[in-house]
Amino acid sequence: MKKTFVIFLALVIFSIPSIVSFVHSGFPLTDDGNWMVIRFSAFYEAIRNDQFPVRFLPRLSNGYGYPVADFLYPLFMYIGFPIHIIGFSFADTIKVILGLSMLSSSIFTFLWLKKTFNNLTSFVGSICYVYFPYHLFDLYKRGSVGEILALAIVPFILLGIKTKNLIIQALGYGLLIVAHNTLAVIFIPIILGYSYLSSENKKFNFKLFYPLFLGLGLSAFFSIPAVYDRQYTLFSTTQVSDYSKYFITWDNFNLLGIVFLISLLLGFYLIFKKNKFASYFLTVSILAFFITTPLSDFMWKTSFLQSYVQFPFRFASVLILTSSYIIAAFLNNLKIKESLIFAFIILAALFFSSKDFIFPQSYQYHPDTFYSTNRDTTTVKNEYMPKWFNYMNQDYKNKVEVLKGNAAINNLVIKGDKISFNLDSKENSLIQINTAYFPGWEVKVDSKKTDVIYKDNGLIKFMAEKGSYLVKAGFYETPVRIFSDIVSFISIIFIIHLFVRKKYII
Q1: 459 with 432: CB under 8 angstroms?
Q2: Dihedral sign for Cα atoms in the order 151, 155, 156, 158
Q3: Does residue 439 contact residue 229 with C-beta atoms inside 8 Å?
Q4: Which sequence spans correspond to the domains of the chain?
Q5: How far apart are CA 341 and CA 34, in angstroms?
Q6: How far apart are CA 89 and CA 127, in angstroms?
Q7: 74 cis-preceded (ω within 30 degrees of 0)
Q8: Could you give the CA distance from residue 506 to residue 502 in angstroms, rounded to a whole number?
Q9: Fewer CB near the last or first residue (10 Å), C or N of the chain?
Q10: pLDDT of 430 higher than 80
C-alpha cells in the first residue's frame, strides 16, 4: 500500500507541470477555450431551468437558441455542473476539468500498463502519455476540453479490458462517446482490436462486444439523437474547415516530436522480439500517422473523414496511446540499469519535444458575466443550426411579436426553454416567437397543442383565433429522444444490477 501511494504521489508530482498553468488567475487563450466556457455557461442555465437532458441552449445564436448540446460532446458540461455549483467560476470550472483530465490520464495509463509491465516502465509510459506534444497542443493551443477528457477515458477502458471488468469497460465506452463522439469513432476500433488480442479465446467471440453494446446503451440518450437529429441541421451542407490545412508535415512535425520517432524505432525492434501487442500498436501507429499526412489526401476527399473528423491531425491522438505503450514495452524488456538509462534518454527527448507546448502562449481575463451573457453559437460555421433558419447574425426587438392581425401580448415570462404569455387577439392573428424552431418545440394555446409554422424563416409561429388565451411554448423530448433516454435508463439499471450481483468479470 505504501509503495502504491508513493508511485501515485510521484505520478501527480510529475504531471503537475502539465497543468500548473491552470493555477494562473487568467484563462488560457486557445482556439476553442472561450467557446467551451460560453457553451458551458449556457448549458448551466438550461439545466437550472429544468431542461434534462440538455439539448437546446436558448441563449446562444443571438438569443434564437442553438441545439448544439444535442450533437457535440456534452460530458464535460455535465461534469462541470456540480463543480460550478460549489463555487467555481465558469472559466475555473473548465480549468478544473482540464486539470483533472490530465491527472486522470497519467493515473489510468499507469494502472493499465502496470497490468503488463513493472512499475518503472509503466511510470515512464504514463508520463509519455501526458507529455506527448500533441496532447499538450490539444490542451493549450486548441483548448479542446472534450478531446482532453476523452483521452483520459481511453486508458480507463483499456484497464477494464486487462482486468476483464465488464462494468469498467461499459462505463468507459459510454463516457468516451459522450466525452467526444469523434474521438470515440476513431478509438473504438483500436480498443476492440486490443480487446481481441487480450482475449484468451483466440476465436472470434461476441463477448468482446458486450461492453461496447452496454456502453452504447449508456450513451444512447446522446448518441442516437446526435445521429438522427442531424438531418434537421445545416451540417450536411456546410464545410466546416479545409482539411488540407491540418495535415502534419515537416513544418509542424513538432506536434509529434522526437518521442514519436523513438517509439517507431522501438516498435520495429519489438517486432523481432515477437511482442504481439507492440506489433499491433506499431501497426496502428503507422496507419494513424499516414492518415495525418498529405499522403492520405485521397481518403479525406472520398470518405466521412472530411465532414466528420474534419482535422487530419486529430489522428495524432492515437499516437499518444501507441507511443506510450511501445516505449513502456521496450523498457520492460531491459535490465534495471539499462532501463533506467533509456528511461532518462526517452524522458529527456519527451520534454525537449514538449517544451513548445507545455504552457499557454497568453492568458485572458474575463468576468463570469462575459461568458454568461455571450450569445455566440460556439461553433465554427453554425453548422448545427436548423436548416430552415435564416436569421443568423440578426437581432430581434421583442421575444414575441404580432406579424399579422390585431393582438396584444401581456405578462411575458421567459424561463430558459419555457415561454408563456397572455394573448388578447382582436382578430385572427399570426404570432411569432423569436426562437429557432427545432423538433421538440411545442406551442399550447389554453393547454391545447397548436400547429407550429416555421419553414418560411425558421422561427416559431402559430395562428391565433379571435379571443383571449394563455400561451405556453416549450422544448420537449421527441419520440426518438424519449426512446434514447429509456435505453440509457435501462442500461444504467443493468449496470447497477451487475454491480450488486458482482457479475461483472468477463
Answers
A1: yes
A2: positive
A3: yes
A4: 2-372, 400-475
A5: 43
A6: 30
A7: no
A8: 11
A9: N
A10: yes
Q: Report the length, in residues, of the chain.
A: 506
Cα 324 → chain centroid:
22
**Secondary structure letter of residue 447 according to DSSP:** T
Amino acid identity for residue 82 in this structure = P
Q: If residue 459 lies in a helix (H) or strand (E), which one and from where to where?
A: strand 459-464
Nearest residue to 291 (alpha-carbon basis) of 263, 265, 256: 256
Residue among 420, 484, 426 nearest 447 (CA): 420
400-475: CATH topology is: Immunoglobulin-like (2.60.40)
User: Which of 127, 184, 125, 126 lies closest to 150, judged by CA?
Assistant: 184
Q: Is the peptide bond before 53 cis (omega within 30 degrees of 0)?
A: yes
| Residue whose C-alpha cell is 471488468 | 165
Spatial separation of the C-alpha atoms in residues 88 and 84, rounded to whole Å? 5
Q: Is the pLDDT of residue 8 over 90?
A: no
Reading the block at residue 294, the C-alpha cell is: 498529405
- The rounded distance, in Å, linking the Cα atoms of 44 and 37 is 10
1 pLDDT more than 70: no
Residue type, 297: D
What band does 451 get if pLDDT is binned at 50, 70 and 90?
very high
Q: Is residue 202 over pLDDT 80?
A: no
User: Could you tell me if 289 and 110 are in contact, meaning their C-beta atoms sit under 8 angstroms apart?
Assistant: no
DSSP 86-144: TT--HHHHHHHHHHHHHHHHHHHHHHHHHTTS-HHHHHHHHHHHHH-HHHHHIIIII--
